[in-house]
Amino acid sequence: MTGMEKSRRAYLKTTGAVAGAGLTGLSGCIGSISGGGSGGGGGEPIQMGSILPITGSLSPYGQGMQDAVNLAKKHINDAGGPLGRTVKVTNKDSETKPSKASQKYKSLVNEQGIVGFVGAASSGVSVPLAKNVASDGVMQVSHASTTPALSGIGYNDDESVKYFGRTAPNDGQQGLVMGRIMNEDQYIGADKAAFLYVNNSYGKGLADKAKAAFDGETVGMVPYDKKSTDYTSTLDKLFENDPDAIGFVGYPGNGKTILKQWDNGGYGGEWVLSEGLNDKGFFQSLKSITDGMYLASPSPESAKKSASAFEEGMGDQAGTLFAPHAYDGLFLQALAIHKAGEATGKAIAENIRSVSREGTKVYAGQFQKAKDLLDDGEDINYQGASSPVDMNKSLEPLNRFAIMQVKQGKREQLTSIKRSWFEGKL
């Protein structure tokens, strides 16, 4: 970086802090007048949001995810925020429904004037949002949407800027893990498999990837409706060709009903569950039914410093699925804003990859250190609470995974799969 660029960073830091000090008393008035999608100017808070499943089929995870976003906000603001401005996060409940999430997104854009947000959780909710973010000039970072389709969504018209990124892994990874569990004799070693999946983009996308990774004969691809309460006919279809293994891509709410009806029907087969079913309460409530089932799940791979900062702030919620990824989603956006010297969705989109990959390592909770390095013209490499979060050109990382097995209602890790195993396989 040139000396002129370094001076610009230092100037932005100073003017941002001065503006913040001088306009604090007026920020309420200015905010009510300016609006828009730039997050305001001067010392106004930078408007951001979250759209998370506080209710609905993914509600077991929603509160932990939201707590993680709010923890990131605290760590950011305790360090004075990007550009010397605080980050204001307006949290919205997606209700795990695309239509509801779209309404909440529009209110965040039109009423709060957000420049970026964390969410949504399920791919079926994130995809329709991602189709609008570029035209709205808003950055979306999902912490839990894993469908491969999102690699190609969120670009502006000339495809020069991508406004959708994620800290969660692409389901191409998880499909490989599910296939590996079915293929290898130390786990199932199946000759025939069938796949049961929730009928949305997440379910179909992951089931297709798992099918492609399975070396044996696929004898069924069966979608299920989240709104149904009787899955007997669905199970009959799933087992009509006597599969040895079942790959199940779903959510806890419907999953509980499906597995109870499977158990009552005496269908048989060995099950491999997706990460969407990785909930402690789910397994404890089905202790006798899920015993021996396999589970493919991302395995947080954070540096000790990031893990400590995250776990200390989260307490009992630290183990919530994809909560570390939610923390990283907001933290990375704030870092991108500070590097850009501008609080806009485009600025985040154009800078978020660079703060995630190469340079001096910074960790969760170290926003002040990161700001100081950026102001001195240094590159930074954020080491997240979820993983190293090295974003590729599609603005998504590789994650470490774990193969787990359920035993007496508890998850036991059998194998850890390093990120390097996935390179060249996706």
Automatic annotation (TrEMBL):
Claim: Signal is one of the keywords in the record: yes
The UniProt record lists the keyword Signal: yes
Domain named Leucine-binding protein: residues: 45-359
Highest rank taxon of the organism: Archaea
UniProt keyword annotations, A-Z: Signal
Protein name: ABC transporter substrate-binding protein
